[in-house]
Specification:
The chain is an all-alpha fold and 831 residues long. 68% of the residues lie in helices and 3% in strands. The protein is built from 43 helices and 5 strands. Helix 26 links the parallel strand 2 and strand 3. It starts with 23 loop residues before the first helix and ends with a helix.
Length: 831
């Protein structure tokens, strides 16, 4: 095959999605170094080489056209290898017509396999093995071709020769005898494939260290920097969720040979697994510089467009590859995935039938469909396909991990544990498997509170306050459900599971398989995960869990109402809008800056502000802008437009299709109109130049008066500043303090209440406001603020005591009795 890669890539199988193995910011920084524009260390051949040797040098360095244009007596094998890298199979086969050496026969087999003619490829490779039965490269290529043709039994028997010949013991006994890096890579890949396909890793996990040792010896000793060995090591690491090691190996390979198609293809896959669409496009362009008709570039482009929720556009590059090779199973699988995403099940089934004709036991195409459906939250359909995949390819760890991940996201933890245990047996060193399995086995001991519409689960052994929060949630959730479900005229057909995790790393593993993600709540539809809202060094601190929970449950409802087809930005916009909280100053500032500086997202790019932010503020802006798009649509078309868009999502329409269908607008026309509306909105917020100057003047005047302790003048200045910019928090913060000094307690309470509803992470505003409302004999307002304080920090005894006092002052006897019991409970676990 074109490269002797370890892992499922050998058989044409998709790499597993391992984005969770490295934090996205670290991955982004590291992968940014691996762009194909960097110069090769071997850009120019040494002067002492003759013309024929220069051709070999150029092929190694990736300068394939130089090999073809070289007028010297270049061997047919070198010219054919160059033609193969350019995708010119016919010319390469013609040059190899008289192949008689092992190298020539292996190359002929590689050419034939590359264009899907497996019978001819196997014939050539069998002749190569007959010619030299000790050739590692010939036997490895034969095994890989059997795999690609779907004959797994023949592949196993071919690879078993390396075991029978005791290659690994011989390597350890006398490493100096292994001087050919290509042979080492062939042996390592074959030993790995044998262990994988025969499930030997389950009983001999140390064998993985042996395989890696051979690869390291190949590129570190036998041939310093050997590219095939580096790419094989990268693939080996990436299949085991070790993204950091994979990145480093790919970087080393591309430093030595920037045009290497196999290294570039793996790099493109890494980018896509992190939704790095621009970077993947750059890799695709680099592949096309070497081969304008690059199969890997077309498949990379097709998968990228599907991940961008553009399955209609994804079909063009995939179909282009199928015109060249109608039997390309990976292309057929991707095209079937595109049809499935477009709700054309008949089309997808027809393509799968074609795959089954070519390879009756094929697992690749079904994996590709299942992977795409899982990404788009079509859990039931994805699980059915992936279950078929693991039955067809029981050795495929990535498929089991993907199936387990689908079960986790769907709330089917028991089924996930079964698959993860099987995956762990196959590959004990896979980080993704280990992370999820450890967590799910811990979760089996979680306590559960059941209500009419929810199941609240938490770890009973870490903090007694977590159990209290679970109880408070259980008492509050059903009322929230009624409000949210009635607003969207839809409710789940099964209880929604709320999982409260005691530490942030456990929550992060549950959500993404990674020990750190920068949020406190996440929804997959039937499951809402939440990190415990407390301050203990293992979480992100206290926060208003009721507001976060309402936000996440709106995701549950809108995902369900659209069969999980809702656009990401739209479910986020509806969720932020549904929090029933006013816009915060930070949100307002982001939107104002983006509007005034031309930085608003286009409607078709808005989702990627969440998924693939380019700068630190992108995700926050995307939340706020999604909310504003909803407000804009409601202002123009009324509340019913939200239901119309829900229906458009349910029908599987893209934003472009929905805009045309509902409003007769193109995305660019919508973006232009929305930008004008936002400019008007920003002006009303006081962010125009003239108002900004006046605001700054009043704030300066107020601060000067404070320094002089001239409270009336300070209050007047800050009050005017608040009128000029009604959403800025600065004036209210200053006024609350001034009013307290002036003994204007009701005014101070009013300002503190205004601040309290604009934050989810600081309950002190609500706590102080509630106390002031009690002092001015406004018990109902005290109850409102005290309840907000409890939501904001449920572990604080003072907040619970304040809510009890507010209920007693308001004459809420039943609520006071219930709150009194909570106070006693908190006192007990504080003691």
């Amino acid at each position: 095959m074109r490269a002797l890669l370890l892992s499922s890539t050998l058989a044409g199988l998709c790499l597993s999605t391992t984005a969770s193995a490295l934090p996205i910011d670290a991955a982004g920084r590291m992968i940014a170094r691996l762009m194909p524009e960097q110069r090769s260390e071997n850009a120019s051949p040494p002067a002492y080489l003759d013309e024929a040797a220069v051709a070999a040098f150029d092929l190694e360095a990736g300068h394939v056209r130089r090999v073809i244009w070289n007028d010297a007596d270049v061997s047919p094998r070198l010219r054919a290898a160059a033609l193969l890298r350019l995708g010119n199979h016919e010319a390469a086969v013609d040059l190899m017509a008289d192949a008689g050496t092992v190298d020539e026969l292996v190359l002929l087999g590689e050419v034939e396999a590359d264009r899907g003619r497996y019978a001819d490829a196997i014939d050539a490779l069998l002749r190569a093995v007959d010619f030299d039965s000790t050739s590692f490269v010939a036997r490895a290529a034969l095994g890989q071709t059997y795999e690609a043709a779907g004959d797994i039994e023949a592949a196993i028997e071919t690879y078993r020769w390396f075991d029978d010949a005791r290659i690994l013991p011989r390597f350890y006994q006398n490493r100096d005898a292994f001087t050919d890096a290509d042979e080492l890579v062939a042996a390592a890949t074959s030993i790995d494939r044998l262990a994988t396909l025969s499930l030997e890793y389950a009983t001999n996990p140390d064998l993985q260290d042996d395989v890696l040792t051979m690869l390291i010896y190949a590129y570190d000793v036998a041939d310093r920097g050997h590219v095939k060995a580096r790419v094989a090591a990268a693939s080996f690491a990436y299949d085991r969720s070790d993204a950091k090691a994979a990145f480093e190996d790919v970087a080393a390979a591309l430093t030595r040979r920037p045009n290497d198609a196999d290294a570039l293809a793996l790099l493109g896959q890494m980018h896509l697994d992190r939704f790095g669409f621009a970077e993947a496009a750059a890799v695709s362009a680099a592949l096309r510089k070497v081969d304008p008709a690059s199969r890997e570039a077309d498949l990379l482009d097709g998968r990228s467009l599907m991940l961008q929720r553009q399955p209609d556009r994804a079909e063009a590059p995939i179909v282009r590859q199928l015109r060249r090779d109608p039997n390309d199973v990976r292309a057929l699988g991707l095209l079937a995935a595109s049809r499935a995403m477009r709700l054309d099940q008949a089309g997808a089934d027809a393509l799968l039938a074609r795959v089954d004709e070519l390879r009756p036991d094929d697992a690749v195409a079904r994996y590709q469909i299942g992977e795409q459906l899982a990404i788009t939250r079509q859990y039931d359909r994805a699980a059915d396909l992936l279950a078929d995949v693991v039955e067809r390819a029981p050795w495929w760890t990535a498929a089991r991990n993907k199936l387990a991940n689908v079960y986790v996201q769907a709330g089917e933890e028991r089924q996930a544990i079964v698959e993860l245990r099987r995956a762990r047996d196959l590959d004990p060193f896979n980080a993704e498997t280990a992370n999820y399995l450890q967590l799910l086995e811990e979760m089996a001991g979680y306590g559960a509170q059941e209500t009419m519409h929810f199941i609240v689960r938490h770890d009973p052994d870490v903090d007694p306050g977590d159990a209290l929060v679970a109880d408070l949630m259980a008492a509050w959730l059903d009322e929230m459900h009624d409000d949210v479900a009635s607003g969207f005229d839809w409710e789940p057909d099964r209880p929604t599971e709320i999982q409260v995790f005691p530490t942030h790393d456990r929550f992060s593993v549950r959500v993404a398989g990674d020990p750190y993600i920068g949020t406190v709540g996440a929804c997959t539809g039937p499951v809402i995960a939440l990190v415990a809202p407390r301050d203990n060094g293992e979480t992100l601190g206290s926060f208003d869990w009721a507001r976060v929970m309402r936000h996440e449950y709106i995701h549950t409802v809108t995902l369900g109402a659209t069969d999980n087809r809702i656009w990401h930005w739209y479910t986020e916009g509806l969720a932020v809008r549904g929090e029933d909280a006013p816009i915060s100053q930070s949100q307002l500032n982001l939107l104002a800056g983006a509007t005034l500086n031309g930085g608003l997202f286009g409607i078709e790019d808005l989702t990627w502000g969440f998924v693939r932010p380019r700068k630190p503020t992108d995700r926050s802006q995307a939340y706020a802008q999604s909310w504003m798009v909803c407000e804009y649509l409601v202002e123009l078309h009324g509340e019913e437009v939200l239901a119309d868009l829900i229906d458009a999502c349910r029908r599987g329409l893209t934003e472009r299709q929905a805009l045309a269908d509902l409003f007769d607008l193109s995305p660019s026309e919508f973006d232009e109109a929305f930008a004008v509306w936002m400019q008007e909105r920003v002006a009303s917020w006081g962010h125009d130049a003239e108002t900004s100057r006046a605001y700054a003047e009043q704030m300066r005047a107020g601060e000067q008066a404070v320094r002089q302790r001239d409270w009336p003048t300070a209050a007047a200045a800050f009050e005017l500043a608040a009128e000029l910019r009604p959403f800025d928090e600065g004036p209210s913060r200053r006024l609350a303090g001034i009013y307290l000094v002036q003994e204007r307690l009701a005014d101070a309470a009013d300002r503190l209440s205004w601040l309290a509803v604009r934050t989810t992470t600081d309950s002190r505003f609500a706590t102080r406001a509630a106390g002031l409302w009690l002092r001015v004999d406004e018990p109902e307002r005290a109850v409102e603020m005290a309840q907000l304080a409890v939501f904001g920090n449920s572990y604080d005894l003072a907040n619970h005591e304040l809510l009890l006092a507010a209920h007693e002052a308001a004459g809420n006897t039943e609520a006071a009795d219930a709150q009194r019991a909570i106070v006693e409970r908190v006192r007990a676990f504080e003691d």
